[in-house]
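Working notes for the structural subgroup meeting. M.R. asked for a predicted model of this chain before we commit to crystallization trials. I am recording the input and output together here so anyone reviewing the notebook later can reproduce the run.

Input as submitted:
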Amino acid sequence: MNTIAKRNRSFPAYDPWRDFMNLESFFPEFSTKRSALPAVNISEDDKSYQVDVVAPGFKKEDFKVNVEEDTLTISAETKQETTEGGDNKQYSRREYSYSSFTRSFRLPDNTQDGAITASYTDGVLKLTIPKSEQQVKAKKEITVG
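Returned structure, recorded in token form:
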């Protein structure tokens, strides 16, 4: 009898309301476990810093990259609208999608702010920030190529 009691305690009690009210099970896109910001990898070598932003689903025109007062700001925004309906249909479906983010990074003192380059390929925005012996400040918008 004692063995049966232990076995039953190892399984969580069935609670239909807990599972019903759990939005994540029905709508995974509402998951609070997901981060709203894209992942960023920052590396360096002798000549430059490399910033890789993993941001799939965007186009290069959606990005805005600025540098001002030693702060690098990367932002992106995309909006999509899909409408379906036919000639003789009594219904239509419209779906809207909106995604945006902004990330800012303080640049080290040994960077050439005006020589930053950016490219976007296969869902990854790559920024190259050249190093310099002395700090070279700039205020500029960087074009994503």
